[in-house]
Amino acid sequence: MSSTWHILGAGSLGSLWACRLARAGKAVRLILRDEQRLAAYQAAGGLTLLEQDLTSHYAIPAETDQAHAPIHRLLVACKAYDAAPAIARLAPRLAAGAELVLLQNGLGSQDEVADQVPHARCIFASSTEGAFREDDWRVRFAGQGFNWLGDPVNPSVPQWFDDLHDAAIPAEWTVDILTRLWRKLALNCAINPLTVLHDCHNGGLLAHLEQVSTLCVELADLLRRCGQPEAAEGLDEQVQRVILATAANYSSMYQDVRHGRRTEVHYLLGHACRAAARHGLELPHLEQLHQRLVDNLKARGLPSD
Ligand code: NAD
Ligand code: KPL
């Protein structure tokens, strides 16, 4: 089986992973959206990674999804709403026993991907690392963090897992990946939409802690109903700690809205509200928050799904 890391999406996280794996001498190939993006990438000559004062350049080979070589290992590093359509196009290239690592935030996109490729192994990841694009093909590693990886249906650690340690990508294999993803989703639901609606950085929510706590009570109910009691424990306290620790930062959803980009609301608050409805659970504040956010996004001309 080939040991090449194919990486779909040379955006913020995809580039961060690609550069670190390439630096460690691993075989990496980028999969770009189309011929036009490929030509632009080739003209740039590779990816540039900025880490504090260090700037490094990596001439990583790239292709489009129309190339022919089979893919054995694929890091899916696009946004949640792009993941399933991207994988549908790549499915014919996936080798028997192919493994996919899904970096998407939130929940729902992982199952959409798995439905496209029932014979591939889908490994879910939850990342607290931070990166952003300063320009095309130029990515800044902005926040140290951690990556948890796991497979909800198969606890065995993949053979390539040590590649991550070799590449200094902080990561741990966990059998509780769904708990991690649910907890992060709940944190994001309690913080991100309110920062958009109140037009503030995370610290601005210190003036709205009652509203945050009300949401945390409903989110904890939802987590318990979804079979995630551990993710529900101490949620309100952790949300308040995160608000304090990231007080000066703008949430990822706030930044998406600010830059006129589509948000991942469908896989965050949208997913939470759909899960509540499936369980017949009434969560009026969460529902109202979702509706207000959808209205706000529509008023800005942004997709609300
Ligand atoms: P991004 O928008 O910077 O990068 C996504 C890239 O995927 C873009 O370059 C886009 O052109 C590309 N893409 C989309 N469809 C494609 C296709 N069919 N073929 C090839 N390329 C395609 O996004 P990001 O910030 O790297 O986020 C990726 C995921 O990681 C999101 O779910 C996000 O929530 C999550 N995440 C990001 C960070 C971060 O710091 N950036 C941190 C934690 C989690
Ligand atoms: O993950 C986050 C985000 O902005 O997406 C934090 C900082 C935790 C806020 O929800």
UniProtKB/TrEMBL annotation:
Signal peptide region: none
Pfam family, any one: ApbA_C
A molecular-function term among this protein's GO annotations: NADP binding
GO biological process assignments: pantothenate biosynthetic process
Cellular-component GO terms for this entry: cytoplasm
Pathway connected to this protein: Cofactor biosynthesis; (R)-pantothenate biosynthesis; (R)-pantoate from 3-methyl-2-oxobutanoate: step 2/2
Residue ranges of domain Ketopantoate reductase N-terminal in the record: 5-151
KW Oxidoreductase (keyword) present: yes
Name of the protein described by the UniProt record: 2-dehydropantoate 2-reductase
Organism listed in the record: Pseudomonas guariconensis
Organismal lineage: Bacteria, Pseudomonadati, Pseudomonadota, Gammaproteobacteria, Pseudomonadales
